[in-house]
Amino acid sequence: MHWLRRPIWWDERMAFPPDATLTDAGEFGLISALTEVFTQGEQVLIGPGDDAAVLRVKTGHVVVSTDLMVEGRHFRREWASAEDVGHRAAAQNLSDVNAMGGPADLPVQWALDFARGFADERALVGASVVGGDVTRSDQLVIAVTVLGACTQAPVVRSGAEPGDVLAICGRQGWAAGGLAVLGRGFRSPRVLVEAYRRPEPPYDAGRVAAEAGATAMIDVSDGLLADAGHVAQGSGVSIDVHRSAFEVPEPLQAVGAALGADPLQFILGGGDDHALLATFPEGSVPEGWSVIGSVAEAGPDGPAVTVDGAPYEGPTGWVHF
Asked: Which residue, among 183, 185, 177, 209, has the nearest Cα to 277 in the 3D structure?
């Protein structure tokens, strides 16, 4: 696994030399470069670069998102059951299965169990599975496309303002603790392993935040500090995260002690819990959200994310390349 250790205000849009690899570019550098290639039609309100695309329609907006899960990269069958993987895929994407590819010797029961887990998770938000594709592959790959609708202006990453506060909703760091445990061949604390296997996104929190006047919002999929960095970069601001805002739960303390690591690193650098991170004007944070930081003008070096006013030296999130 590769963790993002470069400063998270590093400009992912920098030009690449001719011999640059995807590892050199990084996931978000590649996305930024590809975005420059594709022009958008007038029906596109928000194109590549945010959590989802937003398309104009006569009665509101259509929200579209797509994502992949690749065996060995995003999940391992020895760590999670097929139903667990189904829950994880649906929690990440929440809608129709666009494509599933698997080895020829993949048991049919695994595919059926996956579908059951996916169906159980999507039922939590009343989503429907409306289609899909099945193809043969040497590796198990799951791709999901999500379609949704909103009748109000969407909350994007680029709206944070100096003076806002940073707040979070949902548990954070539990899945990262579970991954650390599984990666070392253990299965306890079980509550953390289960958090990795089956995330519990705060599905109602996005609407609540939008109605409360959230200025920017993102789900924490790669890491709290890394995803806060996307908000800072998109909004042209600096964000400071406050350590004192977090209560480290006992299971994370136990894992930190066992591994000789600061348990707060799971919270600050962990992803896969799919908590929501948002900025709000001070005084407008809704119930269920916890203030964990503040937003200020960008400094002379540009947008930045700091922890207690200083650069964070630990892992800030997951790097896909």
From this structure: 209
